[in-house]
């Protein structure tokens, strides 16, 4: 890992000192990576959606305990949030048990946190003021072109629905905890292409993670 560098925020420096190596999740060969790849090629691949759903339901019981052991797990979200435009509210997708939700709620006045897995949501952390919703990234219960900011940490990337719900000039902050070592990782350039014409992107690293801030056309 490269040094944090002068001027790096104290939380990033501390996390890098505490946790010099990211976990080896065998991401290239991970079932989640294979499912994500199948869904990018064919968003109608029902079996892949089901596979993902089942695997995260199974992991829910131990999820929180594992993520809490990963120092700096949400650093990329914290760093990316420093770059977003002011937004009145945000939607977090694939929130799990709320690993990034407190950071988002600390930066945006109102947050709707969504995940498909009731097993994950049942074990969520308590974050005041957050509305928790069971929702599939394929059909978010949100109006078209309404959302100023969508955020996800280690989420399932399904561009069609993201593009539908984000308002003109709205933003998508996509983060991973372990860059390409994250099972659901999709390279930012590929996400950028899949979002379509007119989107802009900037990004960076924080701790072991990566953030990419996409801005929709029509600002
Ligand atoms: C890798 S976990 C990330 C959880 C949390 N954000 C974190 O970083 O620890 C992926 C999450 O996506 C959720 N998920 C899987 N398929 C989904 C779908 N079709 N719609 C919404 N969420 C889904 C899982 O339940 C799981 O909580």
TrEMBL record:
Residues 91-170 form the Methyltransferase domain. SUPFAM superfamilies: S-adenosyl-L-methionine-dependent methyltransferases (SSF53335). InterPro entries: Methyltransf_25, SAM-dependent_MTases_sf. It holds the Pfam family Methyltransf_25. Residues 1-30 are annotated as: Disordered. This is Methyltransferase domain-containing protein. It comes from Streptomyces glaucosporus.
């Amino acid at each position: 890992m490269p040094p944090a560098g002068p001027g790096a925020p104290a939380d990033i420096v501390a996390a890098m000192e505490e946790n010099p190596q990211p976990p080896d999740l065998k991401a290239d060969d991970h079932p989640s990576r294979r499912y994500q790849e199948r869904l990018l090629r064919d968003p109608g691949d029902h079996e892949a959606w089901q596979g993902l759903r089942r695997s995260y339901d199974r992991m829910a019981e131990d999820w929180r305990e594992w993520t809490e052991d990963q120092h700096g797990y949400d650093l990329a979200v914290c760093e990316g949030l420093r770059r977003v435009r002011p937004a009145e509210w945000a939607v977090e997708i694939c929130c799990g048990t709320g690993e990034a939700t407190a950071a988002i709620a600390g930066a945006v006045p109102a947050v709707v946190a969504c995940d498909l897995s009731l097993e994950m949501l049942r074990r969520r952390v308590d974050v005041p003021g957050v509305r928790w919703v069971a929702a599939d990234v394929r059909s978010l219960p949100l109006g078209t072109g309404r959302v100023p900011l969508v955020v996800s940490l280690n989420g399932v990337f399904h561009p069609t629905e993201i593009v539908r719900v984000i308002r003109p000039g709205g933003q998508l902050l996509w983060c991973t905890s372990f860059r390409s070592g994250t099972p659901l990782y999709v390279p930012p350039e590929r996400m950028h292409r899949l979002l379509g014409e007119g989107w802009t992107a900037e990004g960076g690293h924080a701790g072991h993670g990566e953030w990419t801030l996409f801005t929709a056309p029509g600002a």
